[in-house]
Amino acid sequence: MFLRNTLLDIKLYLCGIILFGLMPICAHAVTSVTLQLRWEPQFQFAGYYMAQAQGFYKEEGLDVKIVPGGPGVNMKEEVLSHRADFAIGNSGLALSFMQGVPLVLLADIFQRSAGVLITRPGYGKSIEILSQRNIALRALQDNPELYAIFNKQGILPGDLNKVLSINYPLEDFISGKADAIHAYLSNEPFYLNKRNVPFEVIDPINYGIDFYGDALFSRLDYVQKNSETVKRFTRASIKGWAYALANIPDTVDYLHQGPASKKDRAHLLFEAAVTKGLIMPDYVPIGHINPSRWEKIADTFKELGLAPINSKLDASFYFSYWSERGERFQYSILLGAFSALFLIVGGFVFWYRIVNIRLKASIQDKDELILKVEKVASFDSLTGLPNRRLFLDRLNQAIKWASRTSTFIAVVYIDLDRFKEVNDSLGHNGGDEFLKIIATRLASGLRESDTVARFGGDEFVVLLCNLSKPENVELIIQEFVRKITQATSIQGNILYPSASLGISIYPTDGDQAETLLKNSDQAMFAAKSQGTSNYYFFTQALQIKSSYRLKIATELREALQLQQFEMVYQPIVRLSDGRILHAESLIRWRLSSGEILMPSNFITIAEETGLIVEIGDWVFNEVLHFLQSIAHDDVSIAVNISPAQLNSPKHSALSWHEKIQEAKILPRRLVFEVTESMMMFKSHLVSSKIKILQQGGCLFSLDDFGTGYSSLASLKNLEFDFIKIDLQFIKELHRDARDKSLVSAMLAMAKGLGLQTIAEGVETVEQVRLLKEMGCDFAQGYYYSKPVSAEEFKDMLSKSNHD
């Protein structure tokens, strides 16, 4: 009897809940509202389209008009002007609110922003250098997180070299107009990969900038007058997003056949995968709002000087929505109170116990959720190591501890050498496996007080704490090098990893986290410039050198505009008869002070900043004009080409070929010199450009031959015409029998391959005699002439041919 009564109580309770739950739905009159999107229909807005298509808005008594966005559409203005009731914004909503704009945040749909900087390969190592390049950014309200990256490095928006105001940055990036562009992870990477354009990504989260992406918002007066409508709209929108992410193929089909018919289906699928990663539905309830995180975003705007220092986000900024777990169950309790009218006492007690069990479970779920969110925000998803954000937090704590205990700290910046080649040869899966192996090796053997983090790409940073003296660091660094350089087997391939390491010490090299990190980064670059598997300690001299490099990088761009570059030419003489048949073109930089800088003082910096392409184009055009002024068709000019030049998408071999044809110059009169090191690490892009110029009739010379880098296969596969024997073998040719034997072997090999030979650095008559006897074809050096001006070379050429 008791069981029967209990079952009856439960049935009565359920009937009451169902009847009461239906009452609000039946009571809804159809309300028309307008939603303004940020851009054209795409998966970025799939949740709203699916809420409409699946009838979720209709179930809530809403007739929703979805208005696509585009260039020039300001979501905030659309809402404030009453043309739209709801719109999609981003973290810039906090800035607007602090500036006094009456907006209300309804739901954070994207827990992470899709906004990133895309740069050319190798460009993103230094934010300072990047700030001197042409950067294509949209308005600050469209990408506040990107401006925040520069601000973190002490660079304000007004300090950026050139911010291009554009609507379609992708074409500007491909054409070379922009060196870095604001992009969305779900968009530009798809098109760049499709067009085989190489690029790198700078993600704000790696710099401690953790902004929200798409957020649903409305205006204050509308929310105050229509709170129930706002709740229903938000609830249905979140339901639409849950459906879209759980049914991606069906959602993509709907979008492709309907509102997003202009979009490529493959792109929609790509966008869907990225979007799910940004919304993080497996870790965070869709729409979840975290006020403390918004406060940090607000602080960033204050640091940028965009919001009053005393402004804040008060409660009126957040819409009190029942999807918060605690609030959801408060609503359930309220429902239960009314439904109790339908229940007998036994049923009510049963219901009350169930609700309390669910409340307890919800608190546990919330704790688990917080742990999951913290893990996503603080750890690298690939390796499981701490990310930049967590590393900086630990570094700041370590600095405080070291200050109190008078101990030392070391920050070790590690950059893997030639990682791009691992990715190119083994694919991204192989590259990921490689990174995990390196991460495991670095983490093994560290003390509990130490930290190894991955900052993204092939960059790792180690924090060594509680050091009694700085000298202890070097042994640890040597152990890192030993671990990294161990042979590694991946996908059946044996790899021999190497890395460049830079070290800064607290407090001698800085007492702030960002300073220590920047200085270790500079030291790493110094190590990399010395070759592979090197480490370098930061010094004041290195800081001075870094400042000098930044100064030169800035002045290089001005030098192009002010036409401060000059060309000189060093004759190359045929040994058999002493005639000048070639010359090597060499660049000089004449400063406004009259001082002349040699290439060794600025070419490397030009390569790092990307200006090498513009400088290289200028050199090429100068040589073309010079060849046009020389009447002798049998005289050729050699032009040095940098690997960074050929590896850059901005450089066009086809354009050079067309200019040669327009100049009406025999292509064989141009000899392009490439170094052995370039051949060692050549990419498919480099090889294809060399082939284009060769097929056009231009000649190629392999410079610095014999310095230990060359791949003999390159001599055959790329069909060189000349090899230049490095001056270090010529210098002691008449004194050192080993040098003589080496040069003799090089000459014999070149002859066997049908290549002509040029000896560099010839300075004595004895060297000339020996080279003639050994069968060398040409010689270049101060024995014949130093590099001379164009007019002087013409005079020398006339005398040589007359004689």
In short:
The chain has 803 residues and is of the alpha/beta class.
Could you please describe the fold and organization of this structure?
It is a single chain. This protein has 803 residues and is α/β, with parallel strands linked by helices. The chain has four domains: 25-111 and 213-326, D-Maltodextrin-Binding Protein, domain 2, CATH 3.40.190.10; 115-207, Periplasmic binding protein-like II (D-Maltodextrin-Binding Protein, domain 2, 3-Layer(aba) Sandwich); 388-538, Reverse transcriptase/Diguanylate cyclase domain (Alpha-Beta Plaits), CATH 3.30.70; 548-802, EAL domain (TIM Barrel). Helix 1 (2-27) packs across helix 16 and helix 12 crosses helix 13 (265-279). The radius of gyration is 33 Å and the shape is elongated. The model is unreliable at 1-10, 16-27 and 322-363 (pLDDT under 50).
Any idea of the CATH class of the largest domain? Answer: Alpha Beta
Stretches where pLDDT is under 50 for at least 5 consecutive residues are 1-10, 16-27, 322-363
How many helix segments? 32
The CATH homologous superfamily of the largest domain corresponds to: EAL domain
* CATH architectural label of the largest domain: Alpha-Beta Barrel
Query: How many strand segments?
Result: 26
Radius of gyration: 33 Å
Residue share in helix: 40-55%
Whole-Å distance between the termini? Answer: 129 Å
State the secondary-structure class: alpha/beta
What overall form do the CA principal axes indicate? elongated
Largest sheet, strands/sense/barrel: 8 strands, mixed, barrel
Per CATH, what is the topology of the largest domain? TIM Barrel
Mean pLDDT: 81
Strand order of the largest sheet: 18-19-21-22-23-24-25-26
Number of domains: 4
Percent strand equals 15-25%
